[in-house]
Amino acid sequence: MHTAAGGFLILGRSDATLRHVPARILQVPDIPRTRSGKISELAVRQVLHGRAVENTEALANPEPLEHFRLLSAPD
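Given the sequence above, the corresponding structure tokens read:
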């Protein structure tokens, strides 16, 4: 385990189980958040799995979902 530039904590595969090590780490322009400021992981998961987001009215910024939709699109 070490700290990279920018203060990110880097865990090696020997520091965590494979379940806790992501296959890919991507930089995204923004993350959808609820009106109370919480990250909306469920909305992102729904988009990445090709499902309709159930409650976009609860999101303060639903626009980033389009970026995740493009990430999940087949090449």
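The chain has one domain: 2-72. Try to locate this feature in the token string yourself.
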